[in-house]
Every structure is written in C-alpha cells, then in structure tokens.
Amino acid sequence: MAAALPLAVLVLLLLGPVGRGHAEPPRDTLREELVITPLPSGDVAATFQFRTRWDSDLQREEVSHYRLFPKALGQLISKYSLRELHLSFTQGFWRTRYWGPPFLQAPSGAELWVWFQDSVTDVDKSWKELSNVLSGIFCASLNFIDSTNTVTPTASFKPLGLANGTDHSFLRYAVLPREVVCTENLTPWKKLLPCSSKAGLSVLLKADRLFHTSYHSQAVHIRPVCRNARCTSISWELRQTLSVVYDAFVTAQGKKDWSLFRMFSRTLTEPCPLASESRVYVDITSYNQDNETLEVNPPPTTTYQDVTLGTRKTYAIYDLLDMAVINSSRNLNLQLKWKSPPENGYVHYQPAQDRLQPHLLEMLIQLPANSATKVSIQFERALLKWTEYTPDPNHGFYISPSVLSALVPSVVAAKPVDWEESPLFKTLFPASDSSSHFVRLYTEPLLVNLPTPDFSMPYNVICLTCTVVAVCYGSFYNLLTRTFHIEEPSTGGLAKRLANLIRRARGVPPL
C-alpha cells in the first residue's frame, strides 16, 4: 500500500490539477462561409471561404502539435521562412462584362507568389525548393517553375498581411497558364480542411459538380495578421477559397431558379464541429431585371446589408450553428426563385446534351423601327471522338441556320379577296388580316473550325504496325511450314568425268 502512494501522486502530477480552474482555450479557430450570388447574366456564383487562424508564431516557437492548421503548410512556413504565400488554380476566365466584378480574381492556370522573410540568404534556391514541395502537396506541375517564368514585381503585389518592410528582392511571382485544373488538385486541397469533406460546408464540394461549371478557381492564402488591437503579437491566417459559376439555364433546365441540391447534388446536414462560425449568405439584392423579384426558401431569419465592390448589397444569412436552421430532417436545401409578372412570352431555351440533342433557343421580342438587335452565344470548342470526324475535318463543321419569323406591318391596306380566285403567288403570303403579313427568313449556315487531331500519326502507326506484323508473321510462317530434305552428295557430272579422263591420260590419280 505504501508503494502505491508515490505512483498515484506521479499520475496526478502528470495529469495536472483536477477540478480547479478552466481548460486553456484553443489557440486556433475555424470560420467557414458560403456566398451565393445570382449574376446579372442569369448564372449563379458560389464562393466558399474557410479561414483558419492560429495564435502562434511558427517561426519563433517550436511547434510539434497541430490541431486545425495543416501541418504540411505550417512546416513550410518554418522551413522556408515564409512571410506570405498565395497559390491559385483556375479553370476558365471570369467574364466581368457579364458577371460583374468578382470577389477574388485569379488568372487562368496556376499562379504562385511568395514573400520571404529578410532572413533568407538565397531567395532563388528557397523559391525553387518551395515550388517543388508545393507541386507534391497539390499534385500540380509547379515543379516547372524556374528562372524562365519567374519575375520580381515592384508595384503590383504588395504584402496583404503584416509587413515590416517592402524589399521586393524577397518577392517571387510565377504563372503557369497551361496548367489544367482537375480532381487531382481538388482532393489535396480538401484534405487541408479541418473537417475534410465530411461535415459542414465542405460536403458540397463534390468534384463532378464543381468541374461542370463555367468557371472554377481554388486558392490558398497564408499571411500573418495582428492577434489583438495593439498588434503586440501576431497570428497566422490560412484562407482556402473556392469560386465556381454555374450556368443556371443548364442546371435548371432553361430556368433561372436554383437550389443547393440542383447545383451541388447535395444538401447541408450539419456544421463542421470544429468551426466556431458556419454561415451561408445569399445575395437577395434586387437587380430590377424585368421587374423581377427574388423569393428565397426557407425564409431567412436575419439579413445583412453592406457595400461590396462599390454596390450596396443585401444578404440573407443562414447560421448553421443555429439549430433552428437545420430542420428536423437534418436537411437544409436553399432554393431561390424569380417571381416575375406574366408576359406574352419567356425566352425558351433547351440546353443540349452531348450526342443526344442540340441546343434550342427561341426568343419573342418586339423590335422598334430602324433598330438593330444583336444576339450572341458563348461556346467552347472541344475535341470529338475520332470516329465522329468527317472525312474532311479541316473543312470545319456546319451549324444549322437560324430562323427569323416576323409579322411585318403592311404599308398598303389590302382588301379582302377570295383566295380561290386570287393568283397563285398570293397563297404564298398568308395573313390573318390586312394590317400585317407573315415573313420567315433564314440565315446562312455557320461554319465552325473545331480542334482537329493529326490523323497522319495514327496512319503512320498503322503502317508501321502492319509492316512489323507482316515481316514477323511471314518469317514465322516460313519457318513453321517449310520442309527440309537432306540431299545425298552426287558422284559428279560431265565436267568431273572429263577431268578424270585427262588425269588418267597424264598418269595423275583421279579426283
């Protein structure tokens, strides 16, 4: 019994005081947000932001335990003495003319720019090693960054966090415009989230839906920020952002209405248990488009107004930490519908399906006199299957002509006539009354040049393969089917007999 007392005291000392005081508050926090914005063009933009803040100086403190902040990125900050890191992968181009200004702009492809601490002696070496490590973390081609595509800007890329100085010799910037963004880049990006894609807003990050969009951009931003108002100490902030633009007419089958399930094929069920804030913001600002108004379901409990990008916006707020937001079925499917007054006609749009049906666009419009109307359609060129190319693919592919049907006002009021007694050409222009006549016009077919592969390469491969097969097959067939016979040596011919006669006459032995 006496030997058990020191052991119990030792265990209590290791565990610390029990029942006294409070546990030390966590030094890191996570906030997740989703902003859904109906765009002026009718598309829908969704912007995710996961912000992790860690009250620790990674470059001065020896950190061995990571809770929310990714260990892979924390070790990069310490090893390469990083001040700031900004990395983005973008597929597509943000069309400001039709979608308005974006929250976060990024170029197509991969972009990387880094500020190093002034303690780094060889910036170029650290830059090269850092790009190689990031290439492995995000499964990207960042290892192709070298001196041929690296620059040191002096005005465009200022530090976004705390900065004691702006010596641009510690800044490096590079872009890989041909970098293709795919699921291999999204998967490691999601693994950096504290809840991965298991809970919270990250459950909506379904790869097949995120890449079936008009625009896709994911980024990682690391910077130091002030920990308190007087900025006596610093904290590290990691912001993971993802922006996508959905074609509402395609996802909603020709309508501008949308919902979370229609866009992401999933709904929200619960917040991330590690998050201190989990909210969804829906832009319900009236754009005064054809006197339309927005209807959001379920109705928001609170709204928020602010000036964003120079425009006053109104947002509906859904707090996932509020148990009243998630209903009894543990399902939150936000829906937005456009309410508009009845009209004589809606634009009718039927999206195409690959190799099943073409696009159909019908518009009923009233044109003023002496006016011009321009209709433009955005499209992307894609590679077809090799069996779908015509014998002359370099000639291009034809698109069916457009049809213009109109009721043209009559200049002269026509008298009602008997169609049976009128000339034949009168029956070609039927009209319901004498005030207008019906006209149908057709445009020219459109010739579009699509990307065409080099068909000579398969031809060369086929010829080479056939030649090799023919030579090999012929040789083996010859060896397998040929029969060999052993011939006995002959006694000699006429020349040999004549030679022996001559040798006998001379007294020489015969051959």
Class per helix and strand makeup: alpha+beta
N-to-C CA distance: 121 Å
Percent in helix: 10-25%
Low-confidence stretches: 1-23
Shape: flat
| Main sheet specs | 11 strands, mixed
GO cellular component, one term: GPI-anchor transamidase complex
Keywords: Membrane, Signal, Transmembrane, Transmembrane helix
Protein name: GPI transamidase component PIG-T isoform X4
Pfam families: Gpi16
Q: How are the SSEs ordered, and which strands pair?
A:
Layout: H1 4-15, E1 28-38, E2 44-54, H2 71-80, E3 82-91, H3 96-99, E4 109-116, H4 123-137, E5 150-151, E6 171-176, H5 183-191, H6 207-210, E7 215-226, E8 234-246, H7 248-251, E9 258-259, H8 260-264, E10 277-283, E11 293-297, E12 302-308, E13 311-319, E14 335-339, E15 348-350, E16 360-362, E17 397-399, E18 403-409, E19 436-442, E20 446-448, H9 456-481, H10 494-506
Parallel strand pairs: 1-10
Antiparallel strand pairs: 1-2, 2-8, 3-4, 3-7, 4-6, 5-6, 7-8, 9-14, 10-13, 11-14, 12-13, 15-16, 17-20, 18-19
Characteristic terms for this protein:
20% helix; 511 residues; alpha+beta; 3-stranded antiparallel beta sheet; disordered N terminus; flat; 10 helices; 11-stranded mixed beta sheet
